[in-house]
Write the C-alpha cells for this entry.
Amino acid sequence: MRSDAVRDAFGEARRLQELIVTEPDIRGGMPTLKGSRRGALEIGDQARLESPEELYAEHPTLKPELLAAAIEYAKQFEDDMFRSAFRRVRGTVPGDINLVIGDGDED
C-alpha cells in the first residue's frame, strides 16, 4: 500500500515536470507552462482569485491540464516557502510533516 502512495507521488512530480518547464531564454528562467510564456505561479495564484470561466476568458488557449498543473505547482511552492520560513524561525521541520493552514477548524 505504501509503495502505491510513493509511486503516485513520483508520478505526480513527473507530470508537473513535464507541464511546468524552465527555459533560460523565457522569462529569465522562471517556471512557465509548457508551450507558453505564461508564468506557472502567476496562473496558479490567479486561479485562487478567479473562476475557471474568467481564467479561460482571459487565457483562451489555456488547457485544463496546464491549469491544474499550475494550481498544484503554486500550492507546492507556497507549502515549500512556509516550511522554509518555519525552519528559519523555529529550527527544523521534518519534510514529511503535513502543514495545513486555514483548514476551517478555527474557533
Remarks:
- Residues 2-88 form a domain with the Arc Repressor Mutant, subunit A fold (CATH 1.10.10.10).
- The chain has one domain: 2-88.
- Helices lie at 2-19, 40-49, 52-58, 64-90.
- The chain is about 60% helix and 5% strand.
